[in-house]
Amino acid sequence: MMRAQSIFTILKNKYISTGLIIVLVFVFMAILADIISLYSPVDPAGPPLQPPSRDYFMGTDNLGRDVFSRIVYGSRIMLMIVAIAVAMSGAIGTMLGLISGYLGGLLDRVLSFIMDSIYAFPSLILAISLSVALGASPINAAIAIAVVYVPTYFRMVRGQVLSIKNETYIEMAKALGLPSIRIVLKHILPHVTRTLMVVFSMNSADAILTEAALSFMGLTVQPPTPDWGFDLYKGRGFILLGYWWIMLFPGLSIPLLAVGFALISEGVSTLITARKR
Fold first, then answer.
1. CATH number at 2-276
2. C-alpha 81: how far from its chain's center?
3. Which of 131, 169, 179, 263 could hold 19 in an S-S bridge, CB 3.0 to 4.6 Å?
4. Please, which residues have CB within 8 angstroms of residue 237's CB and are 6 or more apart in sequence?
5. Residue 192 DSSP class
6. What is the pLDDT of residues 220-243, one digit of tens each?
7. Smallest Cα–Cα separation from 123: which of 212, 238, 206?
8. Euclidean distance between the first and final Cα of the chain, in Å?
């Protein structure tokens, strides 16, 4: 009962509810792409450069491919890369932050120096450099994005651990001879999870924009695979000719999904602040 009330309180937050609606629309669109899409995303569906109509909701591109179908299937690539990147960066950054903050000493100084060096580097330039070095593919793009965001989790978790590890209940756990790994996982990690939720959703929003930038430069997928950033790049040459729909719909999808995750982050942050009061 208490858990149901907690979920209701979370969903009652206007930021979280709005953000979830936006994100879930794209998630279901990716899952049900084979059902929703009327045409193949890679094969011609009709005459080229057809404006939005009843037959082609978002028109066709210069090769006659249905833009709506490419938006639907492109959501799979976007969500897959973002999910892998954020999961990897969150897992690695959290683990290193827990170890560094709890153990301290030379290891803490070395890890902090490495993470500060990565954090100081412009994130987009670093992601581009890593993608070029690794090669153009969705998995390599996810790895490049993950490396960029590891320091964010590390710094946040390390700071939380440093403020918690000297609490009385932690000292008592040490005095009782509990293993360090048990203390970290059972007594410290639960206090960090709320902050991680905010960082996770905000990094997801930022990762969407980073992935779009990488795909815009051809560093994620290869044609004819549908991808919002790549389709945005492709449509730039037709915008001045009056074929606005080729660029408009991918250009709207990217910030809309990013806004969805940003709203969730804002809502979670609001709830955490209210509970602390």
1. 1.10.3720.10
2. 8
3. 263
4. none
5. H
6. 998 899 999 999 999 998 998 999
7. 206
8. 24
